[in-house]
Design a protein that fits this description.
single chain, mainly alpha, 3 strands
Length: 194
Amino acid sequence: MRVNKAGHTCVAGRPALLSNGPPARHMCALAPGIAAGILRGVGSFVPSTTSPAAAVQLLYLLTDICILFGFIGWFVAIHQPVGVWGFVAFVLGVLGILLIRSSAAFPDVAMYPLGALMLEVGLNALAVAAWKAHWLPAWVPSLLLLSVIAGVASYASSDLSWLLAVSGVLFAIGTAGIGLSLRPLRRSRVQDVA
């Protein structure tokens, strides 16, 4: 076991998977990432017809803010190992969030599905890059990919609209998994890697 220039424990020259996570200064992404997952999970079961509508919109706004801050913090924490493709994925995801948030300004244009797809593609691509760099367990990108598949399938037929809730739950668990991947582990567990 050795420590690389970034201060991460390495095994055979590669960062040990979740051995000590990113440095503590990147912990600012942990809480928003987990909160985004929880809020998205709750939002999956709140009908859009719930009254008052302002409460539902506030839930969606808080969810998107947590997704944005968690996504930014996560990218800051892993930007070096994911490289330029990680950056492209990050930009795509941020643009997706911006489209989602601006969809109300253009009521005649269905911007939400496009924005959601852009966010999911960017998030999935970054998750795969992080997994390949040994910064994320494989179950996280797997759940995020299943979330995209369920979300796209939910638009295929009104009989499949229930898949949108499934998509939200898968997204919630995957996003929370990203947030959890940023937590520092106890020093004793890091030393056990050797």
